[in-house]
Structure formats: C-alpha cells, structure tokens
C-alpha cells in the first residue's frame, strides 16, 4: 500500500500550528512542512483555506486529495485515521476533560494571554504595526500568571493535565506556552510543577522540531531549547 503524502502548511510561532506538528510527531506520521506567511494572505494558501489561518494539512493518497483546515479539524482527523497512540482519552470522562482543556487554551488562554503578549511581541512585528504597548503586555503577563496557577493546580492532582495519560490537552497547553517561552515570558521559578511537566514534554522526540524553530529578527530566549533549563 503506498504511503500517504502529507504536507502541513504552518507558521513556526503559531500555537495552533505547533499543536498539529506535535500530534503528527507523536503519531510518527511523516509530513513535509511548508512555512506560510499567513498575514500576507498568499493566494495559493487562501485557496486551500479561505479563512487564511494556519495550519492546513493536505494529504494525497493515490488519486484522492484531502484538505483539512485548522487545528481542531486536523487533530480530530488524525485521531480518527490513526488512533494509536491514543491522545484524546480512553474513556468518556478522559475525552471530555481533554476536549475541555483544549478549548481552555485555544479560546480562553489565547484571548487573555496570547491576545496581549503575542499580539504585542509577534504580530505587531510581523505586520509592522509599531512598538509594543507596555500596558497590554502587563495585562497579558498578569493573565499568564493566573493560567499558570491553574496548570499548577491540575498537575498537583494528576500526572498529566487531563488525567493519568499524556493527551492533546498537554499538547494544546505546551503549544501556547512554548511560543511564550520563545520570548522568555514564562516565570518558571514561580511554577515548579509546570516546569517539571514542560521539561518532560520538551524531552519527547515530537518536540525537537519546535525547539529548532527560529524566525529572522526574533531570537529566542537563551534557555528556549535547553532541556534542563
């Protein structure tokens, strides 16, 4: 049976793209990464996804071509087509908690933290919108501490965020946190439980490509790719 030809259109410092990359890596599914400057709305990309948002997964299997747009659809597609290793949960309670936490990070965390910090530090830089607004960055850092305290609470009760096993909830959290860590914004000394959890994730083979990410003009924090930071 011929192998499926996969292409992932992504942006390296996009948390949604990172979730897709982590899932593909954990499931050991080979793919060709194509970096997209999504803010420029390249027509060949918007032809794949009219929203213009990354990531987009394109699979070619013989004469059949499947285009899967944006992270939640990609993760569910991968879990349906490649159920091992199990990343969504083994029973209804685990699956419900995994989905709740994925939504927490992709909606609440993204709005309250990324919407300030990544907008000011990354999006403004990419789109030439001017200097960061320090008051917005302060709001983002305050919200980040609240979210990290919640992560600490969960990890004080569980082995992984959603329960006893690694899940897509961990990948969602790590995708968002890792981009902020690229910019040195995570107060690791205040969150020892989250730091230990993140060190375990950083050590997984699926995480290595993320630690190699670099973007011109945006150097990562010195500890970014250090497994024993």
Major sheet, described briefly? 4 strands, mixed
The neighbouring-strand order within the major sheet is 2-1-3-4
Terminal residue distance: 44 Å
CATH fold-level label of the largest domain: Glutathione S-transferase Yfyf (Class Pi), Chain A, domain 2
Helix content bin: 40-55%
Specify the overall morphology.
globular
Number of strands: 4
CATH-scheme architecture of the largest domain: Up-down Bundle
Topology as a string of helices (H) and strands (E): EHEHEEHHHHHH
Strand fraction equals 5-15%
Number of spatially distinct domains: 2
Name of the CATH class of the largest domain: Mainly Alpha
* Uncertain stretches of 5 or more adjacent residues: none
Radius of gyration: 17 Å
Count helical runs. 8
* SSE-based structural type: alpha+beta
Mean pLDDT: 96
Could you walk me through the main structural features you see in this protein, from its secondary elements to its overall organization?
With 229 residues, this protein is of the alpha+beta class. The chain folds into 2 domains: 77 residues, Glutaredoxin (3-Layer(aba) Sandwich); 120 residues, Glutathione S-transferase Yfyf (Class Pi), Chain A, domain 2 (Up-down Bundle). The chain is 51% helix and 10% strand. The chain is built from 8 helices and 4 strands, in the order βαβαββαααααα. A 4-stranded mixed β-sheet has the order 2-1-3-4, covered by helices on one side. Helix 1 links the parallel strand 1 and strand 2. Helix 4 packs antiparallel against helix 5. The radius of gyration is 17 Å and the shape is globular.
